[in-house]
Amino acid sequence: MIQMTAELAAKAQELASLKGQGNSSEVKHHFEELAGKLDSINRKLRKKLDHSALHRTVQADRDTQEIEGYCQELQAAYDQCKTQILFKIERDTTKILKTLIMRELQSSKQAPHDVGPDKTPCTDGTRVAILNEIMDWVQDSSSNASLGYWMCGMAGTGKSTIAKSICLMLEEQQLHAGSFFCSRQIPECREYHHIIPTIAYQLAYYSCTFGETLEKVLEEDQNIALKEPSFQVKKLLIQPWEAVMKTGRFEGHVPVIVVDALDECENVSEVLKAIVPAIQNKQIPGLKFFFTSRPGKNVSSHLEIDSQVANSGRVKNFYLHNVEKNLVQDDIRKFLKNKLQDVTDEQIQILVKSSGKLFIYAATIVKYVTGTDVYGQKRLDDVLKLAQDPHAMDYQGIDELYGEILTKAMFGQRESERQMSLKIVHTVVSTATPVTCRTISHLVDCSVEVANATIQGLVSVLYINKEDNKVYTFHASFPDYMLSEERNKECHWELEYCCFFWGYHLGKCTVDEEMISMLEAFIQKKMIFWIEAMCLLDKLPLCLDILEMALKIQLGEKNEDMLRQIGEMVNMCALGKIQGRTPHLYLSIVPFFLKEIPMFDGFHKLMNVKKAGKTLRQLGSWSTPSIIECLSLSPDGSILATGLENGDIMTWDTKTGFQKGDPFQGHSERVTSVAFSPDGERIVSGSDDTTLRVWNARTGAPEGDPFQGHRSRITSVAFSPDGERIVFGSWDNTLWVWNSRNEAPEGDPFQEHSDRVTSVAFSPDGERIVSGSRDSTVRVLNVRTGAPEGDPFQGHSDQVTSVAFSLDEERIVSGSDDNTVRVWNARTGDPEGDPFQGHSNGVTSVGFSPDGERIVSGSYDSTVRVWNARTGAPEGDPFHIRKSTPIHGYRMGSASMGAMESMESMVHMGS
Predict the structure, then answer these.
(1) Where are WD repeat segments found (predicted)?
(2) Contact at 8 Å (CB) between 543 and 579?
């Protein structure tokens, strides 16, 4: 008994220490209950110990029974505590797992209506009739009620404030199921692929049943957030909502999703063409969608009433800018009275009249007048004077107000200071994403203090977010005003003509030393600004033609070299997403090009780029209608041929990224390999349909009949250097050489491999062929005799996927599924050095640079790597893309494996 008492005291002390170790309140409560039970039993035991020895002897049997009861009681208390804590751990673990799974949705954290200070509701007493009409639609749960509502309105008519008010009213009635407020200023709020995942994320917390079903969907496919909206709608909305409807949880009332400012979301039509049919066909019954946007074909073509659709399936339309002017102005009057309480009724009436039907005009006046303690009255007088202009109509009123704000903010500044202020404002409205004052200061080369002071002087149109310190515009109409060609009529047509045709006129001139000197000055000091102008004019591809005209003139080696490098940079801009986004010309392109080009002097300090070795950079990317299986560049690099999973071959202009003509059609199964003839006039293709075809590279017309001879799928094709022969390998372990003109085999097939032939290539002199195989070996064959030259090259531990000769014919490079690249002596078959290791998955393609000093490799690990061909050391960091196929020299192409569900691929060009 004494020992048990001591043990109980020790356990009680241990529990007391555990209680203070940062456990949750629930765990502490369980510990306290257990400690209380220990304390109770301990007191009973001590009471028995206080009895005399004689008493304990007499009552020994009874005490023993009671102590056994205490022991059972104690064990039960321990078991209960243990069970409760284990349940707590399981709940917490499930919650953590749920959170981790939900994170896979990649939902936008800034899109919901209750995030951020800029989402404000209507002023009390305004927009009452409009809000009531929308809420009547919300509360209509009849069988023929429309499940969609689109409020369309011109910029500045107050759509977002109405949307915010609707969200708050829905929350009061517990009908707010989710919201997404698009914003062109915030990347995650302007990217269309975030909309459906964000809505699903909020619905999961609105409905437990929805959340449970969604978890199962995400467990099955954790990459669903990366897929197309049509797939997302089906898996993230329709399927989980079906489970909700089966519970009958929302009978009699319908939850609502609010999506605001669709026009501020890039490629929003991709979402609408997926979700609108689901609404119209009632695939999401019992869930309503409220949309707002400006007028625009990309939105209206999906949401305007379709007479072919039944009433219950239509999206209800409401045009905010068509509301009677007197009703809008009554609301504007209430708003102004609420915000400008010291202003007379007569002055309010003037401001109301000048606002027309634009709430943003009134809101901007309020910010402008109340944004200062000192000049408020003076600003009000200026606005009233402007407002009494009888010619201020439509956008002219808001434009003149913005002009007045800018003029007053820059009043008294010297010309250089005014130009700096304008640079800062243009930077704010031009950047692809909001940036801080510090970033602005680097971009325009001013101090942080100057950037901050300029923004503070424009608080009626710009503001600095306290959370991320980035500069935002209050309304999308201000960037529209600053950037609109129609509303900012400072176009210089003479300059546009010069930009387009200087190369043409240069070619017509007599080129002398003076002309060359002028051209050198232009290249070194002005050409970057010409490229900027062409970027803004959306004519970057034309730059390449102009530069080619200039290169036809004898300008000297130095100038011609600079023009070629500039052409490479322009090519990268034209193929990418730089057009119309001038800041990215200086931020994303210029810093990565050689500093030796004089025109880049002074621009590299915008970004501090640290690089080692050669720079590997993407020139551009564009989409194809089916998964890309293979590709090849023409000898002059002007055309890219891609073989697709659907059996088609497509060709592309590498300068512009535009498709050249119609697809080449003839194969019945996927195209596995394509190659250009040395003169670029023909393309050979191999396919899973076991045939080989030759095409006219310009017209896409087939040249002759298909080559038929292999018994199995063709894996790899190549032209000989003289274009007279074609070699191709197959799954039947053979490779065959055919005459490319008469479509006849030259000799018997080579049968030296014991498994599938995966890759073939001619030597530069056309006398030998190298082949790689699934049998993990590389072989060299004599074209004339058909005999193997030497023994197989052995060293790879998995199938060889790609082989190539160096231009001097002395070395062969091979890539393998063993994740390595190897270099071999082409004569002896001996390995030169150790394997190149760095890829984390199978190597899919390899090639030598023309000078033989570098090797490029692509891999299933989604990277392209460049290696020193002599040492095997990597040159620079890997370039992350998808499935890659090196082509030649310093340029390569890559094809994404575009997952089966997307049915879309992307061509990437790199240099």
Answers:
(1) 628-657, 664-705, 707-739, 750-791, 793-834, 836-877
(2) no
From the list 577, 567, 565, the residue with the least C-alpha distance to 538 is: 577
Strand 288-293 and strand 256-260: pairing?
parallel
* pLDDT confidence band for 891 (50 / 70 / 90): very low
pLDDT at residue 269 tops 60: yes
State the Cα–Cα distance between residues 553 and 701, nearest whole angstrom. Answer: 36
**Which spans in 457-526 are helix H?**
477-483, 493-508, 513-521
Among candidate residues 438, 460, 587, 470, the one with its CA nearest the CA of residue 110: 470
Please enumerate in sequence order all residues whose Cβ is within 8 A of that of 57, keeping only pairs 6 or more positions apart, or say none.
none
d(CA 573, CA 592): 12
Ramachandran area for residue 608 (φ above 0: left; ψ -120 to 50: alpha; else beta): beta
Residue type, 167: C
How far apart CA 324 and CA 330 sit, in angstroms, is: 10
- Closest among 407, 391, 321, 380 to 354, alpha carbons compared: 391
d(CA 687, CA 574): 32
Kindly state the average pLDDT of the residues 174-185.
92
Q: Provide the strand spans (E) within 235-305.
A: 256-260, 288-293
3-state secondary structure of 255: coil
Distance CA 778, CA 790 (A): 11
Return the structure tokens found at 663: 């697809």
pLDDT band at 462 (very low <50, low <70, confident <90, very high): confident
**670 and 645 Cβ atoms separated by less than 8 Å:** yes
Cα distances (Å, whole numbers) of residue 583 to 430, 456, 490, 786: 7, 23, 20, 59
Side chain identity, residue 210: F
Phi-psi domain of 846 (left: phi exceeds 0; alpha: psi -120 through 50; beta: other): beta
Under 8 Å CB-to-CB from 480, ≥6 apart: which residues? 155, 487
Query: Of 657, 628, 641, 594, which is closest to residue 881 (Cα–Cα)?
Result: 628
User: How many CB atoms are located within 10 Å of the residue 493 CB?
Assistant: 7
pLDDT in tens, 137-153: 999 888 888 899 999 88
Distance CA 456, CA 723 (A): 68
Dump pLDDT digits (tens) for 369-408.
887 666 678 878 877 876 665 444 445 556 766 776 777 6
Report the candidate in 868, 869, 862 with the shortest Cα–Cα distance to residue 843: 862
Element holding 671 (H helix, E strand): strand 671-676
User: Residue 600, SS3?
Assistant: helix
DSSP 700: -
| 854: its two tokens | 């570098």
C-alpha span between 433 and 145 (Å, rounded): 40
Q: Where are the alpha helices (DSSP H) in 629-756?
A: none
Instruction: Measure the CA–CA gap between 450 and 572, rounded to whole angstroms.
Output: 34
> Pseudo-torsion of CA 706, 707, 713, 718, nearest 10°?
-110
Give the pair of three-digit tokens for residue 79: 């078991």
Residue type, 571: N
Task: Report pLDDT digits (tens) over 62-117.
Answer: 766 776 676 777 777 777 777 776 666 656 655 555 565 556 677 888 999 998 77
- Mean pLDDT on 358-370: 81
- Least confident window among 208-212, 689-693, 722-726, 901-905: 901-905
Q: Return the half-sphere exposure (C-beta side, CA atoms, 13 A cut-off) of residue 403.
A: 11
Q: Rounded CA gap, 246 and 264, in Å?
A: 36
